[in-house]
Amino acid sequence: MNKNTDADTAVTAEPSATESRDFIREQIAGDLASGVHEGVVTRFPPEPNGYLHIGHAKSICLNFGVAQEFGGRCHLRFDDTNPVKEEQEYIDSIQEDVRWLGFDWGDNLFYASDNFETLYTWAEHLIETGNAYVDDLSADEIRAYRGTLTEPGRNSPYRDRTPDENMDLFRRMRAGEFDNGAKVLRAKIDMASGNINLRDPVIYRILHAAHPRTGETWCIYPTYDFAHGQTDAIEHITHSLCTLEFEDHRPLYDWLIEHLPVPSRPRQYEFARLNLTHTVLSKRRLMQLVSEKRVAGWDDPRMPTLSGLRRRGVPPGAIRDFVGRLGIAKTNSTVEMAYLESCMRELLNKTAARRMAVLRPLKVVIENYPEGDGELLEAVNNPEDESAGSRQIPFSREIYIEQEDFMEDPPKKFFRLAPGREVRLRYAYFITCTEVIKDEAGNVVELRATYDAETRGGDSPDGRKVKATLHWVSAAHAIPAEVRLYEHLFDAPDPGAGKDGDFLADINPNSLEVLNDCWLEPALGDTSLDETVQFERLGYFCPDPDGSAAKPVFNRTVGLRDNWARLQAKGQQNG
Ligand code: ATP
Ligand code: MG
Predict the structure, then answer these.
(1) C-alpha 244 – ligand 1 centre gap (Å)
(2) What's the predicted TM-score (pTM) here?
(3) For 354-384, b where at least 16 C-beta lie within 10 A, e where not — what string?
(4) Do 59 and 183 belong together in one domain?
(5) Is 146 among the catalytic positions?
(6) Which has fewest Cβ within 10 Å: 4, 83, 408, 529?
(7) Averaged confidence pLDDT in the chain
């Protein structure tokens, strides 16, 4: 799919205007003012084991955002220390998504795996200095010896091996003499520490697995904890920003930096992760949705992945606005999906071209309009943006309107078309319904109408008023299309809550509705894959790569009705 450019996005995104100074920006500003650092260097460190989601967008906007604001740089670093789960496909998609979001790492693309040799040397350094040992306990035994939050751990019987013995065993681990899980290297810290992360954490494990970048070179791999901070130090990261669940790892992060001959001293700061209602933001769960085919793939428009949001037509600017407005805090909370949708609407309202499309067609034959005749009418492209200009739309004797815009026997508050009633066709004429044609089952299949030629353009010279303006397309000129309507992937705001975490039980069976008999005004045939337009009165839509020139497919990005405004009016609010 080739949708990685966006008209409103320069290579480097502008920071959101509403961004305020959060505690991280205060910290950085202070460090620069006091001379602790001369410049700021951050990194976005994804593990290439899945596609990026909107939660990652928060981290991307923060890391790249502060680097821009303080004149520093931000690295894209693949934290590729677990070859079992990593794939080139993810490495590629992550780069595409970060770029699409509007950020540029320049030459600063790094891989933790590029440092495997250095990390290995540093592991030997810990062994030499008596700060690491090879342990033969199994994973289960290590867990049992570790203790709990209330009980201290116990020393492994292998903890007092001499540095020489440890060095010999560690080198043999590297040489491939042992099976997966037979031995690990552990930092020798304190089995009685109140912080479980300091109870002799594993820093190297045996994994006989090929790595996407280092191939068969290694059969031992550093753990996240051992690789992350040291890689930060190698890259001279000044502020290592991560989510709150790593707060308890910080003492270990600092311990390793203190005990190793690293070239710089990064510091870790934690912020609250983004949670959203009606979706899941865990790669494990997203992976499950894909592998069990609950969705069409990582880029299914119902997915909260950046590739899914892109395919759904969400402009990257709306995602930047969204995360910028939420700000950076130290307490976790959950944000209403409706707020994200509101940000999409706000941006699209300013930028999206207006077009007409009929999703559930009802044919109307205008009997007093000359047969075989037709004309072009002028329609504005965007009432919010004069520079968008106007276009010509064909009108003729047979048109389609929306089925729901007609009622044979309308209730009091229904102001749209009904027998004998006059309405306006947008940019065209006033028409009056004169006859209702039904099939044998009694379904309305066609309407007959008359038009008033004096009302061309949609205004009546005698000041006559109508209560409704309908969108329409000319039957002879319209392009047939498929339109896919999306709802939340999960009915429940917090999928799996109260169901033992069985989030799949909350999947919305109606999250996708496919309409096969839609009609588009001709100008929509020229919509490019990265353009999102407004179908008047219906919502925002964008072309899907599944479509063809003969039969385009459009995805509904978001409807027009603002549920967020409604929720706020009801006194609910986002977290
Ligand atoms: P998961 O736990 O779902 O597998 P992850 O957090 O392990 O995802 P990484 O690839 O390690 O995924 O994430 C890269 C960066 O993005 C990390 O710094 C992580 O803290 C951050 N991040 C991940 N999820 C969120 C989120 N929901 N909100 C903010 N930042 C996030
Ligand atoms: Mg992670």
Answers:
(1) 10
(2) 0.92
(3) bbbbbbebbbbbbeebeeeeeeebebebbee
(4) yes
(5) no
(6) 408
(7) 94
